[in-house]
């Protein structure tokens, strides 16, 4: 008894997921079982389970079991061994600046390339930095095409000439599609580059009735470390 066999695509594709195979199986008298081998193509892409089919045709000295639907077709399922893809957002630092446009650029990355389109929503959240005085609140949807692993999320920084401490806000990842979240919050440290300046001393004459001496006097009153920042020049 003989029967022909051939593979066919399901959700898996010949060439990228498995090797197409066809041939003829022969059963010796008294033999009830035969095997055929289909080679699976490995890759590093993250994908869900995929299927292919093995179809039987042209039986000789036998017939298909008409009482059993699909008795001439078998389904092969390819399980993904790479694990689920995850998404992360970076921690960054940026100088505030004093007039030119500044941007904080977060890097959003996948743990591995995927065969599926992956999506995620990026947003912002206050820390010690506040919107709208320190940065512009932002929200954007990112989409990774199959094989892509890196995108960016840009947040405008509000510049000024005010001396202040370094401040922090956060970039957030929410609503992932076809992936999980490995690191869903990234910090952005805004480094202040404004300097605290003060008016310099100058030497002036100070006359008394009975003596003629020179004394050092501040040009704008007394100065002490505690009043340093109060006497800075802005602009």
Q: Characteristics of this structure?
A:
0% helix; disordered C terminus
How would you characterize the overall build of this protein?
It is a single chain. This protein has a five-stranded mixed sheet with strand order 6-13-11-8-9, with no helix packed on it. It has 235 residues and is an all-beta fold. It is built from no helices and 15 strands. It is rod-shaped and about 95 Å long.
**Average predicted confidence as pLDDT:** 83
Query: How many DSSP helices?
Result: 0
Structural class determined from secondary elements: mainly beta
H/E series, N to C?
EEEEEEEEEEEEEEE
Strands of the widest sheet, in order across it, are 6-13-11-8-9
How would you describe the oligomerization state of the chains in this entry? Answer: single chain
| Unreliable stretches covering 5 or more consecutive residues | 197-206, 218-235
- Principal-axis shape equals rod-shaped
Helix content: under 10%
Specify Rg, calculated over alpha carbons.
36 Å
State the end-to-end distance: 95 Å
Largest β-sheet summary: 5 strands, mixed
How many DSSP E strands? 15
């Amino acid at each position: 008894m003989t029967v022909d066999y051939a593979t066919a695509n399901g959700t898996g594709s010949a060439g990228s997921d498995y090797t197409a195979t066809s041939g003829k199986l022969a059963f010796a008298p008294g033999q009830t079982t035969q095997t055929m081998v289909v080679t699976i193509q490995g890759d590093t892409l993250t994908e869900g389970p995929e299927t292919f089919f093995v179809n039987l045709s042209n039986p000789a000295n036998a017939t298909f079991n008409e009482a059993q639907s699909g008795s001439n077709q078998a389904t092969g399922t390819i399980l993904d061994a790479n694990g689920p893809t995850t998404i992360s957002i970076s921690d960054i630092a940026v100088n505030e600046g004093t007039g030119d446009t500044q941007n904080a650029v977060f890097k959003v990355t996948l743990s591995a390339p995927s065969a599926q389109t992956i999506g995620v929503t990026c947003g912002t959240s206050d820390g010690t930095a506040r919107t709208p005085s320190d940065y512009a609140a932002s929200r954007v949807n990112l989409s990774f095409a199959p094989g892509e692993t890196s995108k960016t999320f840009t947040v405008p920084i509000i510049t000024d000439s005010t001396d202040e401490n370094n401040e922090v806000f956060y970039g957030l990842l929410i609503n992932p599609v076809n992936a999980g979240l490995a690191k869903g919050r990234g910090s952005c440290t805004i480094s202040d580059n404004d300097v605290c300046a003060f008016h310099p001393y100058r030497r002036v004459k100070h006359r008394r009735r009975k003596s003629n001496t020179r004394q050092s006097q501040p040009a704008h009153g007394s100065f002490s470390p505690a009043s340093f920042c109060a006497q800075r020049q802005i602009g």
